Amino acid sequence: MSGATTVREPAVRLDGLPRTRSAWGSFVRFATRKPLGFAGLCILVAMGLAAAFAPIVAPYGYDEFDFARALEGPSRDFFLGTDHLGRDVFSRAIWGTRVSLGVSLAAVFLAQAAAASVAIVSGFYGGWVDKIVQRLVDIWIALPTLVILITLIAIVGPGVKSMILIVAATIAPNYARLIRSVVLQVREEPYVEAAQAIGVSNTRVMLRYILPNVAHVIIYSATVALGAVILIVASLGFLGYGLPPPQPDLGAMLSGDGLEFMRRQSMLAIVPGVAITLIVFSFNIFGDALRDALDPRLRGR
Fold it and tell me: What pTM did the predictor assign?
């Protein structure tokens, strides 16, 4: 043969590494471009670890008491003092954070799972299915949230499981409406229409094409919802509808002992108040930063 055949080398790096950005690189990029959001993440991780390992981190159990040392100020034995029963305020704050975060995480997970499922089906099919679902959502959202919560707790009764289910059922419709609005946009995209044209089943279209393209909205709304749910759980505890004693509740700590003995032991009100503020603030700033990182339109900012 007179002519030589030219063979092109594959367009890969010689070191064998992929060109895509690694997970660590994405994390570093997030930390450098969104320092405030990264700070919120660090606070949440620190408080989450302390809550998860409360039996190890907390110096005392949440129900350990010593009447002889009631309403003491900060000391070597009690970092932030004691309450009217002689229980360590610092330990109860850690246990209270554990309960509040646990209830909030579980409630938001259930709420987002239900909201995403309903929103994707409703937005994808449209028609009478969408109309019925949206009317039910409108009715539920129109009802006062606090009244719904108190009524359901009075019917079901207090407890961790009932609190999770009640809070999840109360907030889910709000996020179903948000996710549905994005589904309505995604279902009109050419790749969705092409998948339907070649005979892909509706279930596969929703799972393969709709869900991944609304995932960033689900994740962002979940982080923001966590801050709101922390406030809801604390508000219920503050009003006396939270978890039954002796389980520690940041809201209950702030209302009962915190208000009654605040002049003698100010830490009873300061500690749970600061804990609630830090958690809510951290979730909000982290959620905003995460939204910018996940949204392709804002990713470069």
Answer: 0.83
